[in-house]
Amino acid sequence: MNWLKTENTALIKLKNIPCLACTDFRTAIIEQYKRKRRVAGFFGVPEKKVYAVLADDTKGELFIASADFKKEKEYQALTPDIPAFHMFERELFEQTGIKPLGHPWLKPLRYERDHVNRKKQMKNYPFYTMPDEEVHEVAVGPVHAGIIEPGHFRFMCNGEKVYHLEIQLGYQHRGVENLFLCNDRFLPHLAESIAGDTVIGHTMVYTRAMEIMAGVRSTEKAELIRDILLEMERIAVHIGDLGAISNDIAYLLGNSVFGATRTLIINMIQDICGNRFGKGLIRVGGVLFDIKKNERDEIRKILQKVEKKVKDMCDIMFSSPSVLSRLEKTGIVNKETASRIGLTGMSARASGISRDIRTDFPDAIYKKIPVKKVILNEGDVYARTYIRFLEILESMRFINKALNKLNNDPVMKEVKYNLSRESMVISMAEGWRGEIIHIVLTDKNGKIKKYKIKDPSFNNWYGLALAERNNGISDFPLCNKSFNLSYCGNDL
User: Which string of b and e fits 145-175 if b means at least 16 CB within 10 Å?
Assistant: First the structure.
C-alpha cells in the first residue's frame, strides 16, 4: 500500500510509513483527495523527508505517506489542484527550501529565525496590488490598539468596498516548535503558551502525544476532567466572543451581559485549578487537580445560571432587527469555498461543513458521551455568531453528563521521560476555534526530532481574507471577530 492507515493518538513506527518517489507522492495525494480525504499535516524533517497526513472524517481514519527529497529540491505544487495545500506548501518551502513549482501565491509565511531564504525580510513583503485609479489601499497594523498581537492587513478598496484583503503575519518569530526538540523532560508549560486563549486545548493534545510516546494512558477520571475543562474553555471563549461581536455592532447590552457571564465560567475554572485559563491543570500522566463531589454540585449550579443568562440574552439579541441587519449576509464564505481552502472548526461548520474532531476522531470519553455536531449553512457572520450560542448549550449538556461519570480513580500516574524510538504520534482535539493537531517524531535515541503544531488559525486566516471580499471595509472588525483567529497560533 502507498499509505499507512492509523487513528488519533496511535503509536506509529517510522519504518512502517511508506516512502514514495516524489512524483508518485504527489499523484498518491491527489488520488486520496478524490476519495474525500483532506490534508491534516504536510511537513518536512531535517533529513529532507516530507510527510503527508490525510484525514478521512467520515471513518475517523488517518493516512500517512512520505517522500524522500534528498536529491530533489522541487516538485510540482499541489495547490493548483488542491487549494487547501496553499498554506502547507508555503510553510514547507519556507522551512526546508523544497520548492513547489507552480504555486500561485508562494510568499513568506512567518519569517522564522531559521527560514531558508534569509534575503526575504518583512519590509520587502510582495503585497498584491491593483493598479487602477479608482482603487486605493488601506493599511492596518501591524501595531494595533490595546493588547492585540502584531499582524498587518492590506485592503484594496473602491470607496468603501473591499476588492481584496491580504493578511501578513509572522512578526513574532517565536520558534515554539523548535523549543520542544531534544529535551529530556516534559514541557507542559511550553504547551500552555502556544496560544493563550487555548491553554486547555493545546496542553491536552500535547500531553496525550507524550503519554502515547511514553507508553502510558491516563485514567478515565483524568480524561473526564480534561474534556470537562476543554468544554469549559469552549463555553468561556464563545461567550466572550458573543460579547465582543455585540461590541463591534454597538449592541452594548449584549457586550455587558456576555462579558459579565463569561467571568462566571473562567472563575469556575480558577476554582478548580487556581488559574482562570486552566494553566497548571493538565500534565503528562493526568491532571493535578480533582473535581470533588461538592465541587460538582457547584459547577452544575453555575452552569444552570450561565445557561439561563445566555439563553435570555441570545433570545433578545438574535430577534433584534438592528443586530440582524449587521450580521446577516455579511462576510459570507460558502460551503464550496470553505471546503476548497480547508476551513476547520466552527468556521467550517457555520459554512455547512460537517467537521468536528469530537465526533469524527473521538477520544474514549467522547465515544461514551457523544456530542451533537452543530452545522449551519449560511456561512456569514450571523452563522459564525449563532453557532457559538448552540455550541455553548451542547458543551453544557456534555459537562453535566461527564460530571455524573466521575469516579474515585486517581487523577495522576507517574510517567518517566522515556519515549518510544523512531516513532510518530498524531494527537488531535477539537479546541473552541477548531481542530488542534500535534505531530511528534522521535529519532533512534528517543529524542524528539520534529514537533509539528497546527492551530486551527493556520487553516482559517485565508478564510477571513475571502470573507471580507465585496464587503464594506467598516465590516472588517465584525468579520475578523466572527473568526477570532490567533496570531500567536500562526506565528509558531
Answer: eeeebbbbbbbbbeeeebebbbbbbbbbebe
Give one DSSP letter per residue of 200-246, joined into a string: HHHHHHHHHHHHHHHT----HHHHHHHHHHHHHHHHHHHHHHHHHHH
What CATH number does the domain located at 176-490 have?
1.10.645.10
Are 78 and 340 spatial neighbours (Cβ–Cβ below 8 Å)? Answer: no
Residue 406 has φ and ψ, to the nearest 5°, of -65, 130
Instruction: Kindly give the pairing relationship between strand 19-20 and strand 61-68.
Output: parallel
Positive/negative CA dihedral, 492, 429, 262, 268: negative
pLDDT in tens, 41-90: 999 998 899 999 999 999 999 999 999 998 889 999 999 999 999 999 99
pLDDT score of 112 more than 70: no
Please state the φ and ψ torsions of residue 156, each to the nearest 5 degrees: -105, 115
Q: Where are the domains of the chain?
A: 4-109, 176-490
Bridge-partner residues for 139, per DSSP? 154
Mean pLDDT calculated for residue range 348-357: 97
44 phi/psi in degrees, rounded to 5: -110, 160
Summarize the confidence of residues 160-186 as an average pLDDT: 91
| CATH T-level topology, domain 4-109 | Beta Polymerase; domain 2 (3.30.460)
Tell me the three state secondary structure of residue 133: coil
Question: Three-state SS for 455?
Answer: coil
Which H or E element spans position 140? Answer: strand 136-140
The DSSP result for 310-361, as a single string, is HHHHHHHHTT-HHHHHHHTTSS---HHHHHHHT--HHHHHTTT----HHHHS
Classify burial at 455, counting beta carbons within 10 Å of its beta carbon; exposed 0-12, middle 13-18, buried 19 or more: buried
Count of Cβ atoms closer than 10 Å to residue 17 Cβ: 18
pLDDT higher than threshold 60 for residue 104: yes
4-109 and 176-490: identical CATH topology: no
H or E segment at 287?
A: strand 286-287
The residues near 27 (Cβ < 8 Å, ≥ 6 apart) are none
CB 70 within 8 A of CB 33: no
The residues, ordered by sequence, that sit 6+ positions from 474 with a Cβ below 8 Å of its Cβ are 160
Q: State the Rg of the chain over Cα.
A: 22
Q: Give the rounded percent of residues in the chain with a pLDDT score beyond 70.
A: 98
Is cis: bond before 142, omega within 30 of 0? yes
Beta bridge partners of 428: 437
Sign of CA dihedral 318, 320, 324, 326: negative
